[in-house]
Amino acid sequence: QAQLMQSGAEVKKPGASVRISCKASGYTFSAYHIYWVRKAPGQGLEWMGIINPNGGDTSYAQKFQDRVTMTTDTSMTTAYMLLRSLKSEDTATYYCARGTFGYYDDWVDPWGQGTPVIVSS
Amino acid sequence: SSALTQGPAVSVALGQTVRITCQGDSLRTYYASWYQVRPGQAPVLVNYGANIRPSGIPHRFSGSRSGSTASLTIVGAQAEDEADYYCYSRDSSGDHLVFGTGTQVTVL
Q1: Whose CB among A26, A35, A53, B31 lies 3.0–4.6 Å from A97's, allowing a Cys bridge?
Q2: pLDDT tens sequence across A53-69
Q3: Phi, psi at B19, each rounded to 5°
Q4: What gap in Å lies between CA A100 and CA A6, rounded to an integer?
């Protein structure tokens, strides 16, 4: 059974960076993309980007293009998301998820448990 | 990226049927997938493609598409279906993915 386990909650000051890890198990890590999505309090789901563990190709949402870096370590079946220059508006729960990309019927499943990130001075 | 537009909220009586819609030009080409989000919990995939339900998702959840509109229908809504529902698909360029604005479903 596929599972994604994320690192724990983070509290950061404005201007700092946060790196979240996402450990995959129960499936062939390189066979699916890893998505990163966030949900701020009272807001909807927001797609941040995607990485293909098979080769490392990434695609980022324009909003995060200059502040985010997504990587994978295939030997550890772990994905990482680094978000720099944090602002208070980045306070949210961050999710990684497994999914397909490049088809007419892409899906995302399962999701990690989420990593709360609080940005406050 | 162009957003996918959903109605903000809908209510349904216990055991009745409710339909949630998602509108966007990209849906003429790409299917939507649908996610249930309960407060404080991770999203759960409930339907994708041409009405495919993941293992463990009840048959009362069904998906469809017509033109630029995708729909998720819950037939015989249960109390546990009360949640926010998001559609997810490509943006108008086809290069990026985007979530719908979300629909809050209340079961009365």
Answers
A1: A35
A2: 999 999 999 999 999 99
A3: -120, 135
A4: 20
Q: Show Cβ contacts of residue B95 under 8 Å, excluding neighbours closer than 6 positions.
A: A59
- Give the residue on A whose Cα is nearest the Cα of B104: A44
CA distance B98 to chain A (A): 6
A75/A24 Cα distance (integer angstroms): 11
- Cross-chain Cβ contact A37/B101 below 8 Å: no
User: Which tokens go with A121?
Assistant: 């001075």
Residues of B with CB below 8 A from A62's CB?
1, 96
Backbone angles phi and psi of A29, in degrees to 5: -55, -40
Q: Give chain B positions within 8 Å (CB) of A102.
A: none
Write out chain B's pLDDT in tens, 108 residues.
Answer: 457 999 889 999 999 999 999 999 999 999 999 999 999 899 999 999 999 999 999 999 999 999 999 999 999 999 999 999 999 998 888 778 899 999 999 999
Q: A64: helix, coil or strand?
A: helix
Which chain A residues touch B29 with a CB distance below 8 Å? 104
Q: Rounded CA gap, A96 and A63, in Å? A: 18
Q: Where are the beta strands (DSSP E) in B1-108?
A: 5-6, 9-12, 18-23, 33-37, 44-47, 61-66, 69-74, 83-90, 97-99, 103-107
Contact criterion met (CB < 8 Å) for B86 and A37:
no
Q: Count the neighbouring beta carbons within 10 Å of the beta carbon of residue A77.
A: 18
